[in-house]
Amino acid sequence: MRIPGGFEGVSAVGAHGFARPEMAAWVENALGRWGTLERAGRHDSAGEALEGRGTVWVVPAPAEGGRVAVRRYLRGGWVAGVLHDRYLRRGRSRAHMEARASDAARAKGIPTPRVEAGVLYPTGTLWYRADLVTAYVPDSVDLARFLFEREAPTPDCPPDEAHRAGALAEAGRLARRLAEAGIYHPDLNAKNFLVTAGPEGPAVQVLDLDRARVTARAISVAPMAARLTRSLRKFETIRGVALGERGWTAFRNATGGTS
């Protein structure tokens, strides 16, 4: 197995992967006791479950006072009903690709949670399952929840028009920064941004870079902005909450496009 730069190899019976040097002992201990990191997170008495498409387990990290987020890779779309959490053993794994893309993005100033570890579990001769560990971002929600919840998504930020417009502007700016950095995110939807609210306004990070392409030159923001626009329009319809002209104008101005 290829080990991304900045990581070291870890292994246990039925599992192999990579971890930051300061995380390696924790990962191997968790694998030795529970078999998978997802199962270790589920059984951690000090952990917390965050529900979404799949459960994310927030557990104490080796660093004093720190926490990490542990999640199982899950398939999306129609294929989820067939393969669920299995991926074909061909080329680099999802965890490996996300670790590389995340470090490349962070090196270019793109805010995204740092990858701490990734572990693969071979399933038969063709498939694997995988877990990813990232730094935990406290007091945060995904952009869809931030924009479309009818009640306050976070204690510091009521769901009013000004805060929604601010979050849309930050998401649009982040999409443009990705393009300027030469990073193409093929699934830039409203669930793939993480919003942290504060007295100075929302801060936004990008998530799920496992299929991102990192290039040496700037690229057009248009495909990513269009994908995000479709996602936001879909949530408007599903949730019955309009983002309004102020919100869409803020988003258009940030990306430099139309919506």
Structural write-up:
With 259 residues, this protein is an alpha+beta fold. It has two domains: 8-135; 140-252, Transferase(Phosphotransferase) domain 1 (Transferase(Phosphotransferase), domain 1, Orthogonal Bundle). Helix content is 35%, strand content 23%. α6 (161-180) runs parallel beside α8. The longest helix is centred in the middle third of the chain and has 20 residues, at 161-180. The termini are far apart.
Largest sheet, strands/sense/barrel: 8 strands, antiparallel
Number of helices: 8
Structural class: alpha+beta
Distance between the termini: 43 Å
Overall pLDDT, averaged? 91
In total, the number of domains comes to 2
- Residue stretches low in confidence (pLDDT < 50, at least 5 long) are none
What is the strand content?
15-25%
Helical content band: 25-40%
- Based on Cα principal axes, name the global outline: globular
> What's the multimeric state?
single chain
Series of secondary-structure elements, N-terminal to C-terminal: EEHHEEEHEHEEEHHEEEEHH
Radius of gyration: 19 Å
